[in-house]
Design goal:
Blueprint lengths: L10 H8 L4 H18 L4 E3 L6 E3 L6 H9 L1 H6 L2 H18 L2 H12 L2 H13 L7 H16 L4 H14 L10 H13 L14 H23 L9 H6 L5 H20 L10 H5 L1 H20 L5 H13 L2 H20 L1 H15 L4 H18 L3 H18 L4 H14 L10 H11 L5 H29 L7
Antiparallel strand pairs: 1-2
Length: about 475
């Protein structure tokens, strides 16, 4: 165990960040600020970029919306996107963890992975985490902490690397993910506002996304030692020492066989759509991950004696879910903020006004592209959902840049860069509660400032390197992807 002793240029930022209220209170303050701002700006309007007429800021203090704040509070909570994913995934992963399987596997893996490659491996895996959609946050963030602890390194450093890789790498991937067709569809619709024949493929950014994986991995691994030094030394706890050897080999081998069997059964089932689409698989990824962790966890527990009955199995899953009490409280507060922000129309009005200001600068296509990366990053601090932001921004910027000679696929790539690099530093990220809960398992005094200060170097370096890659790619005229 160790206490954090921040030093260096980020120490002040961490100290200021840790003086912020608890995230539950922070979300409450921001939500209240949204209510006040909506009342002050009520009636301020812009033209809907989709041509649906004017959109005006709606006051949350008006009688109808004020009543809705109360009547829809439970509905907002139940509809909070990450809530169900987190609970389902954690019940399966929790059994694998508490049965001892994850500790055993990691203990053996750590002894075989050269320390010099561990960090790069985490960034590479995390940068491809979007393939598992939001489940990657649930899996990799706690896994990073555990993996670093097993290696005798500070678990908060591992958690930081995992969170940076997954959230910052959300705009990179070696394969096409569920997000690609979603964004491409919005881009195509926006492009057709000025070019009815425009067509944008789901693979339009694929080549660029592949290159981005290596940018995230290489630059992330270069910055990581500087960030990791901030956390100091780590004295492993007793359970960390006991698990570091990996335990008996036979239970782990049987669990591995169980994993292969589960994956084989999943592969043979009719989860894919009749037309061959993988969308049902993407939509099922959370429950598939839970099952793929649950079954091997039960096999491992049964063979090593930690699971002797169905009651034991249910208790392990229940204990894992019970550990999310703090997250559930945070999720309730975050859900109210997101709903209030949407009802007020402040997001739409802010996006349109920002687009108008950017257009008024009279910049050339290259400079405008770089400015758009910056604007996307700023908007991302307020609206974390990639698809929700693009639904607002695409109808404004895709046609505007298309008229300036910038292809829709290039505009989409610029958006994804800006969206990704500030994912790591927005306190309103829906999965920030998972990071806080994980951090406090190891360092109870860790706060929002601890996490955000450690992410700043990644945001800065990725912002510069990734934007440079995009501008170089565009200047060279290389295809960003297929179609």
């Amino acid at each position: 165990m160790s206490e954090l002793r921040p030093s260096g240029p980020l120490a002040m930022l961490e100290a200021l960040g840790n003086r912020l209220p608890d995230p539950v209170v922070l979300f409450g303050i921001v939500a209240a600020s949204i209510a006040i701002a909506s009342a002050a700006l009520a009636g301020v309007s812009v033209e809907d970029p989709l041509g649906h007429g004017p959109v005006a800021v709606a006051s949350l203090l008006d009688p109808d919306l004020f009543r809705r704040i109360w009547t829809d509070s439970v509905k907002n909570f139940a509809a909070f996107p990450p809530l169900g994913s987190v609970l389902v995934a954690v019940m399966g992963i929790g059994v694998a963890e508490r049965s001892g399987l994850i500790a055993a596997v990691l203990g053996r893996a750590v002894r075989r992975v050269p320390p010099s490659l561990l960090t790069a491996a985490m960034f590479f895996v995390g940068a491809n985490g979007a393939l598992a959609s939001d489940a990657s946050f649930v899996v990799l963030v706690p896994l990073g902490a555990t993996l670093w602890a097993r290696a005798g390194r500070h678990p908060l450093a591992g958690m930081t690397m995992a969170y940076a890789a997954v959230s910052g790498g959300y705009g990179a991937n070696l394969l096409v993910t569920a997000l690609d067709p979603l964004l491409a569809g919005l881009t195509e619709s926006a492009a057709r506002l000025v070019d009815p024949t425009a067509s944008v493929s789901a693979t339009c950014n694929w080549y660029f996304n592949i290159a981005s994986v290596f940018v995230v991995t290489i630059t992330g691994a270069m910055v990581a030692p500087f960030v990791e030094r901030r956390f100091g030394t780590w004295t492993p706890r007793v359970e960390d020492d006991e698990a570091s050897t990996g335990g008996p080999i036979m239970p782990a081998l049987l669990a591995g066989v169980a994993t292969v069997c589960v994956l084989a059964v999943i592969a043979m089932t009719a989860i894919r759509a009749e037309d061959g689409s993988w969308k049902p698989v993407y939509d099922s990824i959370v429950i598939l991950i839970a099952i793929a962790a649950l079954v091997p966890g039960l096999v491992y527990g049964w063979t090593n004696g930690t699971v002797r009955s169905s009651q034991d199995a249910a208790k392990l899953a229940g204990d894992a879910a019970g550990g999310l009490g703090g997250y559930i409280v945070l999720a309730f507060a975050a859900a109210q903020f997101i709903a209030w922000f949407n009802w007020s129309n402040l997001g739409m009005v802010s996006a349109v006004r920002g687009a108008e200001a950017l257009r008024g600068f009279g910049l050339g296509p290259t400079t405008l592209l770089a400015a758009f990366v910056l604007l996307s990053g700023v908007v991302n601090v307020l609206i974390a959902s990639a698809s929700a932001k693009w639904a607002l921004m695409a109808p404004l910027f895709v046609p505007m840049l298309l008229l300036l000679g910038v292809e829709p696929a290039t505009t989409q790539a610029a958006y994804r860069v800006g969206d990704a690099v500030t994912n790591v530093i927005t306190p309103l990220m829906p999965y920030m509660p998972i990071v806080l809960v994980t951090a406090r398992r190891y360092v109870p005094g860790a706060g929002l400032g601890t996490i955000l200060a450690a992410q700043v170097p990644f945001a800065v370096v990725w912002g510069v390197a990734w934007t440079a890659l995009l501008l170089t790619w565009d200047a060279a005229g290389w295809p960003l992807g297929l179609g």
